[in-house]
Amino acid sequence: MKRRNFITKTSINTLAFGLGIHSLAQAGTAKNSAEKLKKKNTTATTPVAICTWQFTEANATAGALLDQGIPALDAVIKGVAVEEENIKNTTVGKGGSPDREGNVTLDACVMDHTGNCGSVMCVENITNVAALAKKVMEDTPHVILAGKGAEEFAVKNGFTAENLLTEESEKAYKEWLKTSKYKPIINIENHDTIGMLGLDKNGNISGACTTSGLAYKMKGRVGDSPVIGSGLFIDNAIGGAAATGMGEEVIKTVGSFLIVELMRNGMSPQEACEEAVRRIVTTNPNHTNFQVAYIAINKQGETGCYCIHPGFKMMKYANGKNMPVVSGSHLK
Ligand code: SD4
User: Fold this and answer.
1) 232 contact partners, CB below 8 Å, separation of at least 6
2) Residue 37 has what pLDDT?
3) Predicted local confidence at residue 44, as pLDDT
4) Which pTM value belongs to this model?
5) How much is the pLDDT for 11?
6) Terminus-to-terminus CA distance in the chain, angstroms?
7) For a designed S-S bond to 136, which of 31, 84, 118, 212 qualifies (C-beta 3.0 to 4.6 A apart)?
8) How far is the CA of 34 from the centre of ligand 1 (A)?
9) Taking the CA of residue 227 as centre, how many other CA atoms within 13 Å lie in the half-sphere pointing to its CB?
């Protein structure tokens, strides 16, 4: 052994003796904790966008805007607008399936990095309801506007009123009327409510969630998507989460808020999504009959997703790449 190596090894051994193995282990743990803490306090400034389901174009739109330095809130609202305006999508915006009386009613909310939020519920005739939720947040003393009031506020503020029931959706609705069986379908067409979370170049996180809700729901029914804490929640010090699936179950467990709180207590986004799904499935034996899926992001730009039934994917945009991520599921 060369003299220098010998001295180094001997010194380490002597040090190990001096400190004792226990102390060394403690030193290791302290180092790990310090590293964890350092990581916890790190804010990613490389933009990341994630969204529920395989809404490729919507997520790419938000990702590209984030790369240009656009704030997260504006990027996600532009991102989800792609699906709100896509008439082929029967679960979001124009072209959405109607309630059981034939009315298309939309729900949406937004939340930004300052903790500010806005929401609209059961709105008819307005396509871009996430943008409308932002307007409520910024230009009213309230957080939520519902129904006619939300629609009138939209029109007064320059949103176009238009019929959201497309020929296709009307045809499907008339077909449904023949049996009128209300049974939400798991993983509807594999695209569903769009919940989107963005982390921008300043390290700020914001989110948007927008939907036409469950097809053929009761008139006046509102799901989780416009309910802050359920369909969406952001805490810029920690991260954000969004939900899709059976809104009633997400509301009962305040799913998105739960995920952010679990991350605050040290869980990764993935662990937090899994725990939030566990909350539902352990208390509700009926969970084999409905889908719930979550997505989450933390301050470091780490992401996670999890669901009850297989078949859910999220989109993830990072480092200029927009990729689908197949979610793990409670049921296999
Ligand atoms: C709702 N969570 O209205 C929404 C819709 C959805 O599967 O995601 N359906 O309950």
Assistant:
1) 109, 110, 111, 195, 207, 208, 209, 225, 240, 241, 242, 243, 256
2) 54
3) 87
4) 0.88
5) 39
6) 56
7) 118
8) 41
9) 21
Mean pLDDT of the chain: 89
Mean pLDDT, range 42-63, rounded to an integer: 95
Q: Which residue has the higher pLDDT, 181 or 4?
A: 181
Each residue of 279-320: pLDDT tens digit? 999 999 999 999 999 999 999 999 999 999 999 999 999 999
Q: Which atom of ligand 1 is nearest to the CA of 248?
A: 10
**DSSP per-residue letters across 30-84:** HHHHHHHHHHHT----S-EEEEESS-HHHHHHHHHHHHTT--HHHHHHHHHHHHH
Question: Residue 214: CB within 6 Å of ligand 1?
Answer: yes
pLDDT digits (tens, 9 = 90+) for 231-269: 999 999 999 999 999 999 999 999 999 999 999 999 999
At which residue do the structure tokens 């799901």 appear? 223
Q: With contact defined as beta carbons under 8 Å apart, do 311 and 332 qualify?
A: no
Is 329 in contact with 291 (CB distance < 8 Å)? Answer: no
Does the annotation list 3 as a binding residue?
no
Separation between Cα atoms, residue 10 and residue 247, nearest integer Å: 63
8-16 long-range Cβ contacts below 8 angstroms, 24+ apart = none
The pairing of beta strand 313-318 with beta strand 321-326: antiparallel
Nearest atom of ligand 1 to the alpha carbon of 244: 8
Chain-centre distance for alpha carbon 169? 26
Give yes or no for residue 192 CB within 6 A of ligand 1.
Answer: yes
The CA distance from 91 to 7, in Å, is 70
Query: Can you say whether residue 274 is alpha, beta or left, with left for phi > 0 and alpha for psi between -120 and 50 degrees?
Result: alpha
CA-to-CA dists, residue 180 to 183, 187, 225, angstroms = 9, 20, 24
Six token digits for residue 288 = 């084999």
What does DSSP say about strands 303-307 and 328-329: parallel, antiparallel, or unpaired?
parallel
